[in-house]
Amino acid sequence: MKTKDIQELSVAEIEKKIRDTRAELLDLRLKKQTGQVEKTHKITEARKDIARMETIRSAKIAAEKKSA
């Protein structure tokens, strides 16, 4: 997911995306352990997406607190 797309989302939507991506990451890890995953780069992409979303979410929360 692109940074620009994430920035357009609200904090609640970002949190939902984080939960979904974490579930996807867990599924990918389990499949990797059993040898069912062919595209292992998806695990790295999911980790980076989660980090990107967490960073933007915390920046939005800080901006809300600062403006309030």
Strand content: under 5%
User: Span from first to last CA?
Assistant: 29 Å
What portion of residues is helical?
A: over 70%
Q: Which term fits the overall shape?
A: elongated
Broad structural category: mainly alpha
Taken together, the total number of domains comes to 1
Which residues form runs of ≥5 with pLDDT under 50?
none
Helix/strand order: HHH
SS elements, strand count: 0
- The CATH architecture assignment turns out to be Orthogonal Bundle
Based on CA atoms alone, the radius of gyration comes out at: 14 Å
Quick recap:
The chain is mainly alpha-helical and 68 residues long.
Overview of the structural elements:
GO terms for molecular function: structural constituent of ribosome. Residues 4-31 form a coiled coil. There is one protein chain. By secondary structure, this protein is mainly alpha-helical. The chain has a single domain (3-67), classed as Helix Hairpins. 82% of the residues lie in helices and 0% in strands. α2 packs antiparallel against α3. The longest helix has 27 residues, at 41-67. It is elongated, with a radius of gyration of 14 Å. The model has no long low-confidence stretch (mean pLDDT 95).
